[in-house]
Amino acid sequence: MSEKEKKDIVEEYDMHFADGLNEDKSEEEISKELGKPEEIAKELNAVYAMNKVEENKSIKSMFTAMFSIMGLSIVNCIIIIVSFFMLLLCTPIILAYIIGVPIMILSPVILIVMGFVNGFNTIGTGEIFQVVKGVILGSLLGILGYYIGKFFVKLFIKYLKWNISIFKGGKLT
After folding, report:
1. What are the distances in angstroms from CA 157 to CA 48, 52, 58, 148, 153?
2. N or C: which end of the chain has fewer CB within 10 A?
3. How far is 139 from 41, CA to CA, in rounded Å?
4. H helical segments located in 71-169
5. Residue 157's closest CA among 71, 52, 82?
6. What pTM was computed for the model?
7. With the CA atoms of 164, 168, 172 and 173 taken in that order, what torsion angle do they form, in degrees rounded to the nearest 10?
8. In whole angstroms, what is the distance from residue 173 CA to residue 165 CA?
9. CB 103 within 8 A of CB 135
10. pLDDT digits (tens, 9 = 90+) for 9-41
11. Cβ(20)–Cβ(30) below 8 Å
């Protein structure tokens, strides 16, 4: 968090205390209204991390937000750990997809290289058909993967926002 953002937050809390004192509230009452400093810090970190994810959808910002949200409650921690375990179980499928789709899309290049190496007379209509099928299937899988990835990023952001809104409402322990 930048120094300017930290300064803005401190000014906001100073203003809250000044308003409370003008309303004849004690500093203790104002502090109780604000909540525990640890919870305020966790919430501010989670909101800051959430904003970073929205402006920069990188893996690093997502992990930072995930760990900030984990600090909000034990339930979040369990949900994120189970989700991470499920992701680990899907890793072979994801890796096969990451490796397979580019190979399918680049199959014409592979066929041409094979033609130069083995001679173009060795390439039959079956191989050409397989290449066309690979390009079409690889392109469709690439487009599908893009939209699935985009969906999961949006879902992840909604999950983080939902957690922050629940925490602000004080509904989680």
Report:
1. 13, 11, 12, 14, 6
2. C
3. 46
4. 74-105, 107-118, 125-169
5. 52
6. 0.56
7. 110
8. 13
9. no
10. 777 777 877 887 788 888 777 777 777 776 777
11. yes
